[in-house]
Amino acid sequence: TGNRARGLGGAVFNFGVLGNASPSIIGSTFDSNSASGGGAIFNDGDQNGQAFPFIQNSTFAGNSADVGRGTVMFNEAVNDGTAGAFLMNVTSSANNNQGASAFENYSDNGGVLDGFSEILASNSILWDSESGTEVVDTDAASEFDHSIVRDGCPATAGWCSKVFTDDPLLG
To answer: How far is CA 65 from CA 32, 44, 110, in A?
Structure first.
């Protein structure tokens, strides 16, 4: 709670370079963290590495990041790396989007060494500020199952099943 990173990942910097970085984060609260990218979590698969956090029964609130850099999470895959985040029973609410996305999902697919990134959300609530979007996929794909997403299923999503836009009345 209340962490500030000058660079990336206000609370967690998960860096899978040339290997595997796959932490399990269960029953945690990420509150009022900030960074230039990934207000709460920066997740990066780089140089054939893999970064796959499993986040369950956790809450994200009051986090912030620079515009376009994921107020909750910046998920990035570059240089033949793979990055993915699996969210199960996660609530993301009242993060400071300021016109940005809560979850930024990015793959570098512009050269010889492409990356692959995805965010998978199941039984989760993504309900952040009205001025931004919940998820932005850039050369990446997100998947949603049995979740409430303020914007609904993103146009860039790879797959959506039973995604609702009804206000969850979080209070």
So the answer is: 10, 16, 25
Burial of 171 (0-12, 13-18, 19+ CB in 10 A): exposed
Q: What is the spatial distance between Cα 105 and Cα 127, in angstroms, rounded to a whole number?
A: 17
CA-nearest of 66, 4, 2, 53 to 30 is: 2
pTM summary value = 0.92
42-71 per-position pLDDT tens digit: 999 999 999 999 999 999 999 998 866 888
Question: Can you tell me the distance from the alpha carbon of 65 to that of 102, in angstroms, rounded to the nearest whole number?
Answer: 9
Q: Is the Cβ–Cβ distance between 112 and 78 less than 8 Å?
A: no
- pLDDT per position as a tens digit, 65-95: 886 688 899 999 999 999 999 999 999 998 8
Q: What number of helices (H) and strands (E) belong to the chain?
A: 0, 19
Asked if residues 87 and 117 have their Cβ atoms less than 8 Å apart, the reply is: no
Residue type at 83 in one-letter notation = A
